[in-house]
Amino acid sequence: VVAMRTNSTRINLSGTEFNQYLEEEGLSNVLALRKRYDLMETPGREQYSRCAKSIVLVDGSSTGFDRVMDMPLEFVAHTDPLQFKTHDTFALQVLFHGEPLADTLVKAQLKSDPVKEVTAVTDAKGQVALALTDPGLWLFSTVHMEPSGEDGVDWESLWASLTVNIS
Predict the structure, then answer these.
(1) pTM for the predicted model, two decimal places
(2) Can you tell me the distance from the alpha carbon of 1 to that of 58, in angstroms, rounded to the nearest whole number?
């Protein structure tokens, strides 16, 4: 398993763009807060960083595919990529500071033409199982966002990803 955490980056989006982004990423809790406090037209000032992992299969071995890397937001594979058969479900868990993260949208995209995408929401244990229909390079992604206490930033988010090549 290879992992990387990026430095934080700030972005500013118009209210409309930010609300659309929240909807696309399944961040209904943040959208609800914006509605509740009449902030739907207010620009979204966000600071984010990425927590990326990739499972690399070496010499026909997948040892360590389920390794936890202690990143603030991360995917942990529960399905061995070498044992996976297409049309089965690929099981993952989402951890936030080492604890299961429930009710979180997870997307899986196959880099193909056209791109294929499946989605699911994590259960109370932060677990999700996605039916992957085709072999290839799959990218799992999720976003977690909370209010920020920093000057000039309203929201702090973490973007997690996991890539794995399924045969």
Answers:
(1) 0.93
(2) 10
Q: What is the 3-state secondary structure (H, E, C) of the chain?
A: CEEEECCCEEEEECHHHHHHHHHHCCCHHHHHHHHHCCCCCCCEEEEEEEEEEECCCECCECCCCCCCCCCCEEEEECCCCCCCCCCCEEEEEEEECCEECCCCEEEEEECCCCCEEEEEECCCCCEEEEECCCCEEEEEEEEEEEECCCCCCCEEEEEEEEEEEEC
Structural contact between residues 55 and 69, judged by C-beta atoms closer than 8 angstroms: no
Contact 159, 140 (CB under 8 A): no
pLDDT of residue 112: 86
More confident site: 112 or 21: 21
**Alpha-carbon Rg for the chain in angstroms:** 17
